[in-house]
Amino acid sequence: MINVIGKKWLFLGISGALVLASVVAISAYGFREGIDFRGGTLWQVASPDAALTEASLREFLAEQGMEDAVITRENQNGSFLVRIRAITEEEHQADLAALTLKFGGAEELGFQSIGPSIGAELRRRAFWGIGFVLIGISLFIAFAFRKVSRPIRSWKYGVVTLVTLFHDVVIPAGLFAYLGRFYGVEADTNFIVALLVVMGFSVHDTIVVFDRIRENLLLGREGAGLAEVVNKSINETLARSINTSVTLVLVLVALLLFGPATLTYFVLAILVGVILGTYSSIFVASPLLVIWHAFAAGRSPGRGN
Question: Could you give the CA distance from residue 68 to residue 234 in angstroms, rounded to a whole number?
Fold first, then answer.
């Protein structure tokens, strides 16, 4: 049996360091916002003409007055993703005609343009969405565990879940702040969706462990001490949590390596979040319950509590 509770300060220390580093990165660098939030145009083009290369496309865009364009090559079909300022439909048609004229057989595979005002509205809704999800999940957990009030009040499960979700969201966010600052990676609506997916996975994993703790407490095992009950519950669900996570991680790694370039950072955010969600459900959420209970009972939350 793994003594997770006995080493709780080590695991919480690792999490605390990662959270602190992430908060510093977010505060210092902020996010490089995608066109979804700041406004702009995403244009996907391709051509059988070998003359269409990243360099020649950049030169063409500069001729059209778009020197600050960001170009990404799509590995799957050899097309190019171009991120530029927001343009009107008239400008779009003129640029497309010029592209077709310069590169024979050039075709447009996708076009999306978002104005700054729409981007600001999407940003506002994204933040509100994440906030409502966090609060809603916490209230649901507190309600679901209402029948278990001793030795831990049901609302404490909700609060600990909220702290755990913050842990699982802020670390990927910090990673993207770092990647945006040094590698130009953008945080767009896909990133927000990835965070919501991570939150759903994390709370599911946490509920599995909490539910086993609830069952063991209802069976009267709290007489052996809360720390022992929690540790036993973690070990009873450990194999299930790891097996589920490993299966999902393998799928995500395959998508990361062989999937389309447009989904690379979306998959990366989910991959990091899944790993963190598994870690936090085992090594963060339950130890926090034990520590909180020890403080509330007026004891020092040491190795034996």
Answer: 52
294-295-299-304 Cα dihedral, nearest 10 degrees: 40
First-to-last CA distance in the chain?
Answer: 17
Query: How would you class 112 by CB atoms within 10 Å of its CB: exposed for 0-12, middle for 13-18, buried for 19 or more?
Result: exposed
**C-alpha span between 222 and 58 (Å, rounded):** 67
Q: Residue 74 to residues 87, 187, 217: CA-CA distances in angstroms? A: 22, 19, 54
> Taking a C-beta distance cutoff of 8 angstroms, is the pair 67, 61 a contact?
yes
The beta strands (E) that lie in the chain are given as 40-46, 70-73, 80-84, 107-114
Of the pLDDT bands very low, low, confident and very high (cuts 50, 70, 90), residue 149 is low
The helix-helix angle for 116-144 and 189-218 (nearest 10°) equals 0
Name which of 77, 30, 34 is nearest 190 in CA terms: 34
Q: State the residue for tokens 């439909």.
A: 89
Higher pLDDT, 148 or 271: 271
- pLDDT, one tens digit per residue, over 10-30 is 999 999 999 999 999 999 999
For residue 39, give the 3-state DSSP assignment: coil
183 vs 24, more confident: 24
The DSSP annotation for 229-287 comes to HHHHHHHHHHHHHHHHHHHHHHHHHHHHHHS-GGGHHHHHHHHHHHHHHHHHHHHTHHH
pLDDT mean over 150-177: 89
Q: Which domains, and CATH codes, for the chain?
A: 5-34+117-296 (1.20.1640.10), 40-114 (3.30.70.2040)
pLDDT tier, 94 (very low <50, low <70, confident <90, very high otherwise)? very high
Does the pTM of the predicted model rise above 0.85? no
